[in-house]
Amino acid sequence: MKRNISLIIILMALSATTFAQKPSAESIRKRLSLGFGVFNDFWMKVPDSINPRAINQGVDVFIHYAFPMDKKGHMNFFIGGGIGAHNFYNQALLGTGEYNFYGKELYADKDVSYFYNVPRKVDGKNIDVKKSKLSITYVDIPFGFEYKSSSKIHGTLGFKVGWSLNAHTKYKGSDLEGSGNEVVEKSLRLRNIENFHYGPYAVIGYKWLGASVFYQLSPVFEKGLGPEIYPISVGLVFKPF
Q1: What pairs with residue 169 in β-bridges?
Q2: Cα(69)–Cα(184) distance, rounded to whole angstroms?
Q3: 106 close to 92: Cβ distance less than 8 angstroms
Q4: Which pLDDT tens digit goes with each residue over 148-181?
Q5: Largest CA distance in the chain
Q6: What is the chain's Cα-based Rg?
Q7: How confident is the model at residue 99 (pLDDT cuts 50, 70, 90)?
Q8: CA–CA separation, 43 and 50 (whole Å)
Q9: Does the model's pTM come out above 0.90?
Q10: Distance CA 241, CA 198 (A)
Q11: Reduced to 3 DSSP states, what percent helix, strand and coil does the chain have, rounded to the nearest 5?
């Protein structure tokens, strides 16, 4: 599947050159567009035992290069690059192995990643979770088709593939060792995170503002090595440049 999608990207990029005439420096500038987006991730297939937060804010930035498909420039094929950060806030911790932090057996398979709820008490002391999240940053290659009407209404139908640049968890709250202190802990080496993600997306808007949706088809964790969760991202896109 990964090889097939990579091949599609290459073929789309090569075919795009058939739409382009030799551009001047001025036309190159006009064909480039820079923008950013803010969105909320709705996480699908979250384990029933986990209580996810309703708001999972994320952000991305991107650059597109357009290949006009008609003389008036209403229909364009584009390809570009971007960076996007996705977050999954919850009241749980991410673990890998046979035991959790307070010594109770969870899974027989030591290689599987899983979410487990933070206990309400440790050694008789109340545990207060202020923040617990999984954060993944992807480097993306978006491509697709964009239509711009004379009335400045625009629509985009595209596809995005990307590779994981960084994945980490962050916990802020009571010390899980039972000391009673507040701690901030960050785990930078996560196992079983899928390095590759992909899915279709769409944008509809007016002038420099648009509404977007991205449907990730690939799960966050490698198949069989973690929960099969994936985000649907809904938000706003700004293209002032």
Answers
A1: 134, 187
A2: 52
A3: no
A4: 999 999 999 999 999 999 999 999 999 988 788 9
A5: 73
A6: 22
A7: very low
A8: 12
A9: no
A10: 26
A11: 10, 55, 35
